[in-house]
Amino acid sequence: MKKCCICKVMNGCIKHHKRYLPQEIILVCNNCHNKIHSNELLGVDSLTPSRRMASIFYSNKGVIRKKSNGVALRKLTYNEKKIKEAMYAN
Ligand SMILES: [Zn+2]
Ligand SMILES: [Zn+2]
C-alpha cells in the first residue's frame, strides 16, 4: 500500500498529473486529490499543471475539448501539436 504523497497518512490510490511535460504522476489519497482540484493546495510545490497543458494532453484528434462534456472548443495550433507529440513520446 502506497502512502499519499501529500499527507503521508492515507492510502495514495489516485494518480494525479503534476506535470505533463515531462509527465510526472504522483499518488495521492482521495481527500488530498479533492483539495488539489479545489485549488486549496494550489501553489504548493506547483501541484497542478497549467490548464493549457491539461487541455492539450486531453485533446483528441487534434481538437481541444471541454473535459466535462467533450464538446469541441478549438483546434490545436501547430505548436500545441508539437507539445502533444512530446508528451506522448515516452
Ligand atoms: Zn493525502
Ligand atoms: Zn488530479
What would you note in describing this structure?
It is a single chain. With 90 residues, this protein is α+β, with helices and mostly antiparallel strands. It folds into 2 domains: 1-48, no CATH class; 50-90, no CATH class. Helices cover 28% and strands 22% of the residues. The chain has 3 helices and 4 strands; from the N terminus they run E-E-H-H-E-E-H. The strands form 2 sheets. The chain has a two-stranded antiparallel ribbon. The longest helix has 10 residues, at 78-87. The mean pLDDT is 88. Residues 16, 33, 36-37 line the site of one zinc ion. One zinc ion (ZN) binds at residues 16, 33, 36-37.
Secondary-structure blueprint:
Layout: E1 14-20, E2 23-28, H1 30-37, H2 51-57, E3 63-65, E4 72-75, H3 78-87
Antiparallel strand pairs: 1-2, 3-4
The structure holds zinc ion (2 copies).
Radius of gyration: 15 Å
Give me the number of helical elements. Answer: 3
Please tell me what the overall shape is: elongated
Number of domains in the coordinates? 2
Q: Mean of residue pLDDT?
A: 88
Largest sheet: 2 strands, antiparallel
Task: Give the cofactors and ligands.
Answer: zinc ion
Q: Order of strands in the sheet with the most strands?
A: 1-2
Question: What's this, in brief?
Answer:
It is built from 3 helices and 4 strands; from the N terminus they run ββααββα. The chain has 90 residues and is of the alpha+beta class.
